[in-house]
Amino acid sequence: MTSQLQQYLPVLMFLLVAVGFAGGTLAFSVVAGKTGRRTKVKDSAYECGMLPEGQGSARLSVKFYLVALLFVLFDIEVVFMYPWAVTYREMLKTDAAVVLGGMLSFLGILFVGYLYALKKNAFDWKR
Questions:
Q1: Predicted local distance difference test score (pLDDT) of residue 89
Q2: Does a structural domain hold residue 7?
Q3: For residue 103, which of 117, 88, 118 has the smallest C-alpha distance?
Q4: For residue 125, is it within any domain?
């Protein structure tokens, strides 16, 4: 029984060292930091030497996010198809119909989604 508890002693020591290091680092930053020297100029945003004017970020159209999501969607599909294409010959040896049927159904669902996006003019940037 004591030997099992002794096996956890290095883990406990590591945990104590980690907590001590984190607490010591925070305490040192409070002691050594210069918290009293903050001014309004130092707290303002720095933009390449220019004074900040207007809002920090411009509002983007919802169409931008839609096109970005569609790009991510179709990019993930290609990432899925690449390893499938690399190992296609090896998979054919086990069960060719299931392998080809699975990929054709995947491509079919992808094609239906593409047609839906075309019908809804999701790829039309100016609309």
A1: 82
A2: yes
A3: 88
A4: no
